[in-house]
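pasting input
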Amino acid sequence: EDQVTQSPEALRLQEGESSSLNCSYTVSGLRGLFWYRQDPGKGPEFLFTLYSAGEEKEKERLKATLTKKESFLHITAPKPEDSATYLCAVRSFYGGATNKLIFGTGTLLAVQP
Amino acid sequence: NAGVTQTPKFRVLKTGQSMTLLCAQDMNHEYMYWYRQDPGMGLRLIHYSVGEGTTAKGEVPDGYNVSRLKKQNFLLGLESAAPSQTSVYFCASSYASGGKYNEQFFGPGTRLTVL
């Protein structure tokens, strides 16, 4: 069964304190791993898609990496505005034709000034 | 471009009442999805559609029905609401699979409470 597990559930950082969020997955033929950001009371906002092990994507203070079993979202020198829930999702070979995604439960990040 | 919009934003129902949630997208996306999000459960797929006039069941379809009469609209119906359907509902849309640039775009959500 395809599965996505995110850790930690919650993370509290001081402004400027770099850290990483983890997304481990078990999927029948990965056809894409997606990172989203979700602010309270809003819908998820797309950040990155990764397709193959070794791939990396960057956006401002965020960098996503992918291995054959997990993905990391590295946050460098975070600011309070980076506070949000970060969601990871995978698209499997069997979900490919319909673009269906399987989501993890997310990591709630709080960055204190 | 409004992207994906959802109506209403909030709703309170009594057990047994019915309602319809409306999702609209202006990106000419072929695929549309309805999710529910509950604490500790993540986003779970209720129903989805790969084109006008087509619908299919997702992971948690019981108690819900959907219709896609127009490409830009996807309706989610609750025929007889139950307290277990208290949740936040999100609609999403995407281009058809086959290409790399087909991430799902989400609406702002509808918060539904069933008493």
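fyi The mean pLDDT of chain B is 94.
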